[in-house]
Write a structure and sequence with these properties.
The chain is of the alpha/beta class and 417 residues long. The chain is built from 14 helices and 17 strands. β11, α8 and β12 form a beta-alpha-beta unit. The longest helix is centred in the N-terminal third of the chain and has 20 residues. The protein is globular, with a radius of gyration of 22 Å. The relative contact order is 0.16. The structure holds nicotinamide-adenine-dinucleotide (NAD).
Length: 417
């Protein structure tokens, strides 16, 4: 194992290995974790207690996670004097499966985004966010039980790649000059302007859509919907749609059909065992998930659309405090909730740890411990039905008992049968 300056490798754990393209999971895997900024400090310890408690109850001591603390954001600043130390990247690369709390990103200045930097530098190209309903959760929609989406959000490009030039700089004037004089582009207003680039590549689109279709096939899902704004951004978002269909048409056999084929060749009757690939325009899709919820299943989206749809879908099943997520590369996985560090609630033992706990459940499924993951989800449902909830849910659930982050965590462990 590599040498680290500030990271202590637990002696009672074994490293997850990677051979011939597949990961091998021991019974005592070393899992690096980043506590997170803001409310990360409230929810991360509770998440680890719940996971340890569930694993202990379910496997009676035969399995155990060896947690290994690594640092990013404020905690890294304290330890290393920088928010983004190299050895954090090195540890995630070496130990392969990690989990993180949210990290704060200053708006408009300073370091762009630690989260984006982590995903880009580790080439964690697929952000996967399952959005499903757990019994007992409050919801603003009439049939939240119809929500069962798995969002595949491209993680490395789009306007999120951070290729931007600030107004008033020499660089932005050089870029303006190039576009106006070389490319004969019209329409950039005179005076101060910020400019950005939106790359959507065939390579990144295809590997993301491939991953979404593979997931749909492996999990018996009905459809993959490509969500884009190709009617307006024809050569970026439109290309995402076209390359997505190309993957469906060229790389899979009869088990993957397009929506056109479904109607032209099968009169709208989906053959058993197939996945239908269809596409929707992003603004319409924000409406469709509300009005035609059951029609959607796996979704594949460029980075920005994926960001918007994730939070909107999350709102249908109890809000951001519930929504888990994961970022996957080849042979690497970094689990994290959809929500941010909600700084105004930090340090109050107040916010909902469910999203991070469910992210850890995704991790347990990934390492082949689904029994512990199911036990936690069942316990969460029981706890919501008991109306024993944190503040975010309490205000939506009449007659509920409002409890702290740590009280909620203890009840989850107690409710595991
Ligand atoms: P946020 O997700 O932190 O919070 C928005 C609101 O959602 C909060 O005010 C709160 O009402 C609710 N919320 C969030 N987490 C909750 C929880 N666990 N329990 C209950 N309610 C919860 O979004 P923001 O305020 O836009 O961003 C705050 C910071 O987090 C910013 O610096 C942002 O860049 C960062 N951020 C980080 C990540 C990440 O680490 N992946 C993701 C999103 C935002």
């Amino acid at each position: 194992m590599s040498q680290y300056q500030a990271i202590e490798i637990p002696q009672d754990g074994t490293k997850i290995s990677y051979q011939d393209g597949s990961l091998n999971f021991p019974d005592n895997p070393i899992i690096p974790y980043i506590e997170g900024d803001g409310t990360g400090k409230d929810i991360s310890p509770v998440m680890r207690q719940v996971i340890d408690g569930a694993v202990e109850k379910v496997y009676a001591g035969e399995k155990k996670i060896a947690w290994m603390r690594i640092y990013a954001g404020e905690s890294a600043e304290e330890v290393y004097g920088t928010v983004f130390p190299d050895e954090t990247l090195q540890a995630i690369t070496e130990f392969r499966v990690a989990i993180k709390g949210p990290l704060t990103t200053p708006v408009g200045s300073g370091f762009r985004s630690l989260n984006v930097a982590l995903r880009q530098q580790l080439d964690l190209y697929a952000c996967v966010r399952p959005v499903y309903y757990l019994e007992g959760l409050p919801s603003p929609v009439r049939e939240p039980e119809l929500v069962d989406f798995v969002i595949f959000r491209e993680n490395t490009e789009d306007v999120y790649a951070g290729i931007e030039w600030a107004s008033g700089t020499d660089e932005v004037e050089q870029v303006r000059d190039f576009f106006e004089n070389e490319m004969k582009v019209e329409g950039i207003h005179a005076g101060p302007v910020g400019l950005g680039l939106k790359p959507i590549s065939q390579f990144a689109t295809k590997r993301l859509v491939r991953r979404a279709i593979d997931y749909a096939l492996q999990h018996g899902r009905e459809s993959v919907t490509l969500v884009h704004k190709g009617n307006i951004m024809k050569f970026t978002e439109g290309a995402f749609r076209n390359w997505g269909y190309e993957v469906a048409e060229e790389e899979y056999g009869k088990e993957v059909i397009t929506e056109d084929q479904l109607w032209d060749e099968f009169s709208g009757e989906q053959p058993e065992g197939t996945v239908v690939v269809k596409d929707r325009i992003a603004d319409n899709m924000l409406q469709q998930i509300l009005t035609r919820t059951a029609d959607y299943d796996v979704l594949a989206l460029p980075n920005l659309n994926g960001d918007y749809i994730s939070d909107s879908a999350g709102g249908m099943i109890g809000g951001l405090g519930i929504c888990p997520g994961a970022n996957f590369g080849d042979g690497l996985a970094l689990f994290e909730p959809t929500h941010g560090s909600a700084p105004k609630h930090a340090g109050k033992d107040k916010v909902n740890p469910t999203a991070l706990i469910l992210s850890a459940c995704e991790m347990l499924d990934f390492i082949g411990w689904p029994e512990a993951s199911s036990a936690i989800k069942n316990s969460l449902e029981l706890t919501f039905q008991q109306k024993y909830v944190t503040y975010d849910l309490a205000r939506q659930l009449p007659g509920s008992q409002k409890v702290s982050t740590s009280q909620f965590g203890r009840r989850i462990i107690d409710n595991i049968s």
